[in-house]
Amino acid sequence: CARRAFGRVVLVGQLQRGDGTMLVLFETAAGYAIFKVLDENKLREVDNLWREFETAEKANKLVKLKHFEKFQDTTEALAAATALVEGKLGKSLKKVLKKIVAKEAHEQLAVADAKLGGVIKDKLNLSCIHNATVGELMRGIRTQVNGLIAGLPAREISAMSLGLAHSLSRYKLKFSPDKVDTMIVQAISLLDDLDKELNNYIMRCREWYGWHFPELGKTVTDNLAYCKCVQKLGDRTNTATTDLSDILTEEVESAVKVAAEISMGTEVSEEDITHIIHLCDQVVQISEYRTQLYDYLKNRMMAIAPNLTVMVGELVGARLIAHAGSLLNLAKHPASTVQILGAEKALFRALKTKRDTPKYGLIYHASLVGQTTQKNKGKISRMLAAKASLAIRYDALGEDINAEMGVENRAKLEIRIRHLEEKGMRRISGTGKARAQSDKYQHKSDVKTYDPSGDSTLPSVPKKRKFQEVDEEEQKEVKPKKKARLLESPVTEYIEEAEPPTKKKKKKEKKQQVVVKLEEEEAPSTFVTEEVPSTSFVTEETPEKKKKKKKKIKIE
After folding, report:
1. Angle CA(516)–CA(518)–CA(519) in degrees, nearest 5?
2. Measured over all CA atoms, what is the biggest interatomic distance in the chain, rounded to whole angstroms?
3. What is the mean pLDDT of residues 478-499?
4. 298-303 contacts: CB < 8 A, separation 24 or more?
5. Residues 346-354: what's their mean pLDDT?
6. pLDDT tens figures, 135-160
7. What is the mean pLDDT of residues 297-306?
């Protein structure tokens, strides 16, 4: 496996004019080895070819080393191996083929990799073939490579293979001590795991110690302070003699001491208290380690992806990198994918049910999205994803390590958020500088006074005038002849002009009002009374006059 990792074996089958020999090019960690096939007839039996390589003696009878080109250093070996992995013709391989193979004017070349054979044919104008026999021959040479190459110890080949394998792995992974996004993926995953474990431990601690001192959980709300208090107190009977000033404030401390005296908790043994305190020790230690891990993650994010960190924050940026697998993979995603990254389940459910797709995923927890209103969260998440994708590509592929671009884009987004909140939308068409046209605002202030007439259910007009006023509409409906007849009637005889006000008894006024009401009930639309000034009053009438008055008012 190590040899497959550090290089590739290439079989170059040569069929010369006249002698019909075949040459095999085999690459090792130490250099290129060219073998000559002694008996080509044995290659026809592909199924039994492995028997010829059971021992080194049998292998030497089939193939023979013709030339060995050693690498100068690990850099040259890495360049050659990388070229073969990518299907390219390296300088060292090209030199060997020109020196050993091309000068003998062979007609055909048998190669293991069809892509590499095409490159050799284009560059060196050599006809290349590729078949199953080539693969079996390569397998046999690989098993007996130590016996076929003389002067190269097995230990040295093993050491060279290991060194080249490490170099090739670093090249594939583009290893850089300053940009190790794998550490970020592991750190953010561990941070999430620590949060879950802390929540479970704290809930268990509160429930466990709550049987002994339930009032402490209601008084002390902070989880870390609660565990530290339990560490110091132990049994609740020690509360009066324990100083908790370094953990709690004076008010909370006094409340805890008062609650301990009247606590309704049950009594527990010393062994129970010991286990509870041990659990609190674990919570405190995990909390301290979580703080250290968060600081480490923050520093690592600023070193690897400073622009992304400025745009969305350390935690959201680390979760995006972890979700994509690496910073380079995240840089390959478009802005629309970055926007909904983390909401794949909701996306496919929406596509399946033909409903609205989600507007945001992990990016929802960014501070810029959180500080906007619910109406504008979709717009801001889309704009933030577009700017964040640019920042990710700059961090992953750029050479400079600074956060200037992230700061600039964040300032633009904040201005945009401010415009959306103030409803200062600018015109898209035209120059883009003019504001959207709207009518001039005119302040209309109508001062309304309080109407106290609606507060009371009693009539607002005086009692005397209420029964004497008649609407103008009713007067118009009455015919002129009837109106004249009514005006000539003796009703006016009983309504006299205003006289100097004299003191009358209230009983007389009530009697007069009753008379007028009775007249209105008998003929509401056939008689009219004249209006009387506010200073006038109704004269006292005798029962005889009242009867005469009723008869004269009636209109037949």
Report:
1. 65
2. 165
3. 43
4. 300/180, 300/183, 300/184, 300/187, 301/184, 302/403, 303/178, 303/179, 303/401
5. 92
6. 888 888 888 888 888 777 778 888 88
7. 93
CA distances from 78 to 50, 82, 87, 112, 166 (A): 30, 6, 14, 20, 10
Q: Which two tokens stand for residue 384?
A: 């933030």
DSSP letters, 193-252, are HHHHHHHHHHHHHHHHHHTT-HHHHHH---HHHHHHHHHHHSSGGGTTT---TTTS-HHH
Angle at 105 between CA 104 and CA 106, to 5 degrees: 100
Query: How many beta carbons lie within 10 A of that of residue 413, not counting itself?
Result: 19
pLDDT band at 334 (very low <50, low <70, confident <90, very high): very high
Helix, strand or coil for residue 38? coil
- State how far Cα 372 lies from the chain centre: 14
Cα within 13 Å of Cα(340), Cβ side: 13
Q: What is the DSSP letter of 44?
A: G
pTM over 0.90: no
pLDDT digits over 504-540, tens only? 445 555 556 655 455 555 544 443 434 434 444 444 4
Chain segment 164-186, per-residue pLDDT in tens: 888 887 776 665 555 678 889 99
Task: Read off the DSSP letter of residue 178.
Answer: T
Task: Give the number of other Cβ atoms within 10 Å of residue 76's Cβ.
Answer: 15
d(CA 250, CA 241): 15
